[in-house]
């Protein structure tokens, strides 16, 4: 889990909220996209870590 991704999610959520409050659909949409992309990156990093852990576990069991 990357602190940068959490920051980007928060930044996108704030931007989305500002867009909603001000009625600026473009800013709202940009914030939503930024938030969603950051969340997707976080999920991808988590999945990559899980796969690497599983591969390492298999390697360790084969080495025994």
Overall description:
- With 64 residues, this protein is mostly helical.
- It has one domain.
- It contains two helices and no strands.
- The chain has helices spanning 3-22, 25-63.
- α1 (3-22) runs antiparallel to α2 (25-63).
- The longest helix has 39 residues, at 25-63.
- It is rod-shaped.
- The mean pLDDT is 92.
Short synopsis of the structure:
It contains 2 helices and no strands.
Secondary-structure map:
Elements: H1 3-22, H2 25-63
Helix pairs in contact: 1-2
Helix/strand structural class: mainly alpha
Q: Give a short account of the largest sheet.
A: none
Q: Give start-end ranges of low-pLDDT stretches.
A: none
As a whole number of angstroms, the C-alpha radius of gyration is 18 Å
Total domain units: 1
Q: What's the assembly state of these chains? A: single chain
Number of helices: 2
How do the helices and strands follow one another from N- to C-terminus? Answer: HH
Q: What is the helix content?
A: over 70%
Q: Give the overall shape, derived from the CA principal axes.
A: rod-shaped
Strand content: under 5%
End-to-end gap: 31 Å
Protein name: General stress response protein CsbD
Pfam families: CsbD
Organism: Streptococcus sanguinis SK330
InterPro entries: CsbD, YjbJ_sf
Give the key terms.
64 residues; mainly alpha; 2 helices; 92% helix; YjbJ_sf
